[in-house]
Description:
The protein is of the alpha/beta class. The chain has nine helices and seven strands; from the N terminus they run βαβαβαβααβαβααβα. This is Oxidoreductase.
Amino acid sequence: MEPILEGGSMDRPLAGRVALVTGGSRGVGRGVALGLGEAGATVYITGRTVQGRHPDLPQVSGSLEETAAEVTALGGMGVPVPCDHRDDAQVRAVVERIGQEHGRLDVLVNNVWGGYEGLHRWDERGQRWQAPFWEQPLELWDDMFVAGVRAHYVASALCAPLLIGAAGLVVNISFFAGQRHHGQENIPYFLAKNADDQMARAMANHLRPHGVTAVSLYPGLVRTEGVLLAPEGTFDFSNSESPQFLGRAVAALAGDPQRLARSGQVLVAAELGEQYGFTDVDGRRPRSIRAEYAEE
Length: 296
């Protein structure tokens, strides 16, 4: 299926559109912002790292200003907005600013996620992620649900009026782990991702009559800064994705006037690549890993 464009041009199909990507200083959020930027969108990017480096990721750079500059360099317009999504007042201020400056919002990407911070904060990277739940820090629950699921709900609720005015798109960034728990998978992570999926499904029921699409979107293995810090041999990158690949998936959905038919669904970026015909930044098209998480 070729991308279907609503306005704009073939090289800037989202020109004139306004997007909000939460948690876009680095990682998946940064990639999503870049994917929307190269499609010509104006992208508001929230996060806590204004300058310098994140305290849990001192080895890597990444800030709102850097992401915004890259979005603009790709042909969009990047707008960095400092925001801690655990503070509803700060989120409301971001939404009010978008409303005052544009009066509409075409795309909301709920990406902000505090659930991975413990991987960099704990003594042994990743080891306690697989530990039994009673051996894990209790704050991991709040990292997942307050700085993750609740933040997605709050942003969606506050943005809904602007999205309705634009017949927009809501995307919850989730993952296959939400579909099934097995082995020693992290329990708060499983529950949080499942909640994000169910939230998109439930929001779709409320938003569909207003022409707004709500979906949950899964990446595969993404080469984020944090993932690339893992010890050699931890991951097999042969079928991995750049963060920007997920952004191209969001841009393809945003540019499809038939997207409402997908509302409430769990979508996979690699499968959208096949359907819409886009590739990763290196020209490759990753394979879907859905089968690896299928119910036995």
